[in-house]
Amino acid sequence: MPRTASGRSVERSLPAEAAGGVYREITEIGASVLHRRCADVTEFGTEVLSRLLRDMFFTMHVAHGVGLAANQIGVDLRLFVYDCPGEQGERHIGHLLNPELCSTSDGSLITRKEGCLSVPGAARELARSADVTVQGQNWQGNPVTLSGTGLFARCLQHETDHTDGILYVDRLTPEERHHTLTQRDDHRAAALAERAERARSMAGG
């Protein structure tokens, strides 16, 4: 999920979780891995998993994201990473494996523009629960419970959706989806060019 609807934001420092990571190409809408429920993570604490998480954090930052799911870089596993600002200016940084949305507080919704790194150059207003709780595991297999409000709540819902094979455009009306994909067609090339330039620049830095 992009940091803002436009994809532009104040530059954040790379978190320690991205150290040693490399950029991986982001899959786009239409790729089969984005449109099916991903496989559960069953092997924990491995070097392969550690490397995957580092690469995901790095790739997310290259693309100005606040969240990124594994299937967005073509890996069929139920996990995501996040680096998302909170309501009070705090910075939520972490990852979650095998996420399951377990509660919302009172059913209240907030509508705001939402985009997706796998639908580059587009954004559309979408109602999401104002606050949520998601349960899962960390990369070592230990249980984790995450609760969020505002943008962080939206990020948790958006990324959990990804692990279930759902894109935010799937939650739009047919007309809204059509307009969103038209917007993507108009702005995709510029968004991808910026992403490629950042990948080169950040790899060199």
Write the layout of secondary structure elements.
Layout: H1 47-62, E1 67-69, E2 79-85, E3 91-104, E4 109-115, E5 123-129, E6 131-137, E7 143-149, H2 150-163, H3 174-204
Description:
With 205 residues, the protein is an alpha+beta fold. It has one domain: Peptide deformylase (Peptide Deformylase, Alpha-Beta Complex), CATH 3.90.45. 30% of the residues lie in helices and 25% in strands. The chain contains three helices and seven strands. A five-stranded antiparallel sheet has the order 1-2-3-6-7, sandwiched between helices. Strands 4-5 form a two-stranded antiparallel ribbon. Strand 6 and strand 7 form a beta hairpin. The radius of gyration is 16 Å and the shape is globular.
From the coordinates shown, what is the CATH architecture? Answer: Alpha-Beta Complex
- CATH topology (fold) name: Peptide Deformylase
Number of helices: 3
Largest sheet: 5 strands, antiparallel
How much helicity do the residues have? Answer: 25-40%
Shape assignment? globular
The chain-level mean pLDDT equals 94
Give me some keywords for this one.
single chain; two-stranded antiparallel sheet; five-stranded antiparallel sheet; alpha+beta; Peptide Deformylase; globular; 205 residues
Outline of the structure:
The chain has 205 residues and is of the alpha+beta class.
